[in-house]
Structure formats: structure tokens, C-alpha cells
Design goal:
It is a single chain. The protein is built from five helices and nine strands; from the N terminus they run αααβββββαββββα. With 207 residues, it is an alpha+beta fold. The chain has one domain. Strands 1, 2, 3, 4, 5, 6, 7, 8 and 9 form a nine-stranded antiparallel beta sheet that branches. α1 runs parallel beside α5. The radius of gyration is 17 Å and the shape is globular.
Length: 207
């Protein structure tokens, strides 16, 4: 699942970078400005943060589970948190971080409405994407830029210091929000070997 998500995110970002001068230029200006600012924004959610050691992450999630705040996700490979009031309709968010040198550097988060059904248009991923975007603007601040991708439709990207957030639709049910610490230097020998592809693809035209 991680490899598939990584390639999907790479395709989304690379697609909108090459799709037109205006989105690309706007993204590159944002990237250069935020990386040069030296500002760090490591906070994620539920007390999680970039740089959190792997062992601390598991201990923290165990404590959240004991408090009834999270539980094991559907695939038994993620943690699940129920969104009751954050979005327009009750939803579930599943998450599990990617680690680099034993510390969190990226947090992919999957969203879906609890009552989703193919015939229920108001709970479609198109509406969910906007719902997640509006919520994230309240939590992380405004400044997302809208980009178009030929196969994934509309995506939204925001960079604030070292933290990049990318929101995009996976299918008719799921929306992804991927939070990445773009200051981390990737190592192909680390536990998430394809992680470097994303940032390498984004920044290769800036070098």
C-alpha cells in the first residue's frame, strides 16, 4: 500500500508541475521561499510530530488507544481515528507514518465518509476533498494552491516552512492528505526506500 501511495503522490505532483507554467511557477516560488525561510512546522495531529522516534510513536498510539481515541484500522496496518464534528459528515481517517532513520518524516492520511455508498453523491470523494481542504485550512492555515492533474483531477498543495501538505482524490470513496517534512534528506537505504522519488521529482527542475 505504501509503495502504491508513494507512486500515486509522485504522479500527482509531477503531473501538475509539467501541466502548465502558472501552477509550476507558483509552486516553485512557494517551495523556494519556504525552504529558505528556515521556519519549522513539525506539528501533525493527535500529538504526533515530524521527528518523533518510532518507539515513541508506538507508545503514544498505545496510549491514545487506551483512552479510546484511536483503534486499529481496517487493514490492520494503520491507526483509525473517527471524525465526528470536524467534517460535514462523520468520517474516518486512517494513518501510519513513514520513517526515515527511525523518525517520522511523512504522514499519509486516508479519509472516507462513514456512510459512503456509490449512490450517495453528497458523500462522494469530490465533496470529501473540499471538506478535508476546508478543515485543514482551519487547522494549518490558508495558502493551499489548486492544481489540475489529467487523471487525478483537482489537487491542493500548501508548503509552510518544512511542512508540505498535499490533498488529492484516490478513488470515488477515498481522499488522501500527505504531510511531508521536505527538509529531510532521504536515504535510499532507509525503511521507506521509495520516499526520495517524490521530492527528487519536484525539485529536479529547480537545481
Amino acid at each position: 500500500m505504501k509503495t502504491r501511495l508513494n507512486w500515486t503522490l509522485m504522479i500527482v505532483i509531477s503531473g501538475f508541475i509539467i501541466s502548465g507554467c502558472s501552477p509550476r511557477s507558483k509552486y516553485e516560488r512557494m517551495l523556494k521561499h519556504e525552504l529558505a525561510s528556515g521556519v519549522r512546522n513539525d506539528s501533525l495531529f493527535l500529538g504526533l510530530y515530524f521527528g518523533m522516534p518510532e518507539k515513541e510513536f508506538y507508545t503514544h498510539c498505545w496510549n491514545l488507544n487506551q483512552k479510546g481515541l484511536i483503534k486499529q484500522g481496517e487493514t490492520n496496518t494503520t491507526a483509525e481515528y473517527e471524525l465526528k464534528d470536524e467534517l460535514k459528515y462523520p468520517a474516518l481517517m486512517d494513518f501510519y507514518p513513514n520513517f526515515m532513520k527511525g523518525k517520522i518524516f511523512e504522514m499519509p492520511v486516508s479519509f472516507k465518509y462513514k456512510g459512503w455508498a456509490p449512490w450517495n453523491n453528497k458523500l462522494s470523494s469530490d465533496n470529501l476533498e473540499i471538506d478535508v481542504l476546508n478543515w485543514y485550512e482551519k487547522v494549518f492555515g490558508k495558502g493551499f494552491i489548486q492544481v489540475k492533474h489529467p487523471t487525478h483531477g483537482t489537487a491542493y498543495v500548501k508548503i509552510n516552512g518544512n511542512r508540505r501538505i498535499t490533498i488529492f482524490i484516490e478513488d470515488e470513496m477515498h481522499v488522501w492528505a500527505v504531510l511531508t517534512d521536505i527538509s529531510v534528506k532521504k536515504d535510499w537505504n532507509d525503511s521507506y526506500p521509495n520516499s526520495g522519488i517524490i521530492d527528487d521529482d519536484i525539485t529536479k527542475d529547480l537545481k
